[in-house]
Every structure is written in C-alpha cells, then in structure tokens.
Write a structure and sequence with these properties.
This protein has one domain (about 5-255): P-loop containing nucleotide triphosphate hydrolases (Rossmann fold). It contains 8 helices and 12 strands. It has helices at about 45-50, 75, 95-100, 115-125, 145-155, 175-190, 200-205, 230-240; strands spanning about 5-15, 15-30, 30-35, 60-65, 65, 80-85, 160-165, 195, 210-215, 220-225, 245, 255. A 6-stranded mixed β-sheet has the order 6-7-8-3-9-10, sandwiched between helices. Strands 2-1-4-5 form a 4-stranded antiparallel β-sheet, covered by helices on one side. It has a two-stranded antiparallel ribbon with strand order 11-12. The chain is globular, with a radius of gyration of 19 Å.
Length: about 260
C-alpha cells in the first residue's frame, strides 16, 4: 500500500536548539500510529511540522506524494486535521457550532452553510457518540465529552488523517478509555489514519498497530506495537528498566508499577 505521509531525514530547530534530528517515517492509509518518548523528545513538534503549524526544517515531508510546501493551508486542511493538547479553556460555542467550524476548508468567508456541511456534522457527531449533545454548550460538558467534540470537529474537515496531541491529558481513566475507543471506532469504520502523541506506553501498545519512539529528537524505535514492550527497546527510549505483566484479556505484556515499600 502506498504511503500517504512520507518523512525523509527531517530535522527542525528553534533558534539554535535542534528539536528533531533526521527523522524518517512512512505512514500508510488507515494506520493507527502512536508517538511516544520522554518529555522534550520532539513528539508534539513533529505533529506541528506535519500540519505546518511550524514551518521550515531540513529534509522532506510529503503528503499523498506531494511536498508539504506545495499545498496551500486550505488544501492541507482538507487532507490533515489536528486536535491540539487540551489546555482547560472552554470556548463559548454549542457542540453543533463548534463541530461546524471544522468545515472551514470547504467554505469561503461569505458562503452559506450547505446541506453537505450539516450532513458532515451529523455524521461526525454520530461517529463520536455526541449527537444527543449537539445543542449543549461546551461549558456544560465533561472533559472527555469536550474532547470527543474536538475530534468530531476534526472529522468534519473531511481529512483522511487526524493528528492528536495527547488526546487524553487530564482525563480520568473512564474517559481516557472512552476517547481511545472512539478513535479506534473512527479508524475501523471510516478508515481514517490516526496519529496520536501519548505519554502512556501501555495505551500506545494496546490501541496502535505501530509505534514511533523519539528520544532527543531522533528515532529510537519504529515498528509494530507488539514488539515494543520489552526492555531492549524501552531502555533505549527511556533509559530505565520496566516490569511487565501479561494483560488479563490479550495476554500481551503491559508495564506495571514497581513495588514501593512504605
């Protein structure tokens, strides 16, 4: 299958500080990819470079075979959507209004809302399980519900690729699981490519088919999620040994906390 994202020896610096170093990665349509690594490894920066929030860098990024710089921002928004890390702010919109904003690549400043735009909103709210909340104000929703609205707005763009920067930050375990299951459903039912930054190695291994691990801006591991959970790999990424146990349902290894004696 042909790659829809090709990153070739890409490096990126801010001032004199190099954030990414010779990163190479290919992503196929319909993949689920998690990006992990220590704080400051360049995970969020890589997403922002793909969606061109951060412009420049050395090396190449190609989307659907075309250089990233050849797209206008509107053209790029029809192909790649981005859900930033939650910052706790509550925007003054209803669920329907906010999701409809995701149609911006398909609208001109003075165009009216078409039936196709409303249908895209309805489909996105249905796929994320948020239809019954369409008239609710964002401020009345839980953090997990708001995050699913942000994902719905990204779906409304009609892009085949969704980038998510730590989509479950600040959420309790129930809502974390709910968001990840929603993303799995989107991938399974719509074939949307999901690329997600996470600090949770277990989540990366359970919900993604492939994992990219960055350390100090360089690729430390890129491969199947089932090959991630061993200390040969994770020591290279995090500089420490972990303890593993078999997942009670899948039997695959997951990281468990070390015993701390009082």
């Amino acid at each position: 299958m042909k790659a829809i994202i090709d990153i070739d020896n890409f490096s990126f610096s801010i001032g004199r500080k190099q954030i990414l170093r010779d990163v190479s990665l290919s992503v196929e349509a319909g993949e689920t990819l998690s990006i992990i690594g220590p704080n400051g490894a360049g995970k969020s920066t890589l997403l922002k470079c793909i969606v061109r929030i951060l412009a420049g860098g050395a090396g190449g990024i190609r989307i659907h075979g075309k250089p990233l710089e050849s797209y206008t921002q509107r053209e790029l928004a029809k192909l790649v959507s981005y859900v930033p890390q939650a910052d706790g702010r509550v925007l003054p919109f209803s669920v329907h209004e906010f999701a409809l904003m995701g149609r911006y690549p398909h609208l001109s400043p003075f165009s009216s809302i078409k039936e196709s735009d409303e249908q895209a909103v309805n489909d996105a709210l249905a796929l994320t399980g948020m239809q019954e909340f369409r008239d609710r104000h964002l401020g009345t929703l839980s953090g997990g519900e708001r995050q699913k609205v942000f994902i719905a707005a990204a779906l409304c763009q009609g892009a085949g690729i969704i980038l998510l920067d730590e989509p479950t930050t600040f959420l309790d375990p129930k809502h974390q699981d709910d968001v990840h299951r929603t993303l799995s459903r989107i991938n399974r039912e719509s074939g949307v490519t999901i690329i997600s930054v996470t600090h949770d190695v277990n989540i990366a291994a359970i919900f993604s088919r492939r994992v990219l691990a960055l350390k100090t801006g360089a690729v430390a591991y890129c491969g199947p999620s089932e090959s991630l959970m061993n200390n040969d790999v994770l020591q290279r990424v995090y500089g420490k040994q972990f303890i593993f146990a078999a997942h009670p349902v899948t039997g695959r290894p997951v990281i468990v906390p070390e015993e701390v004696k009082p």
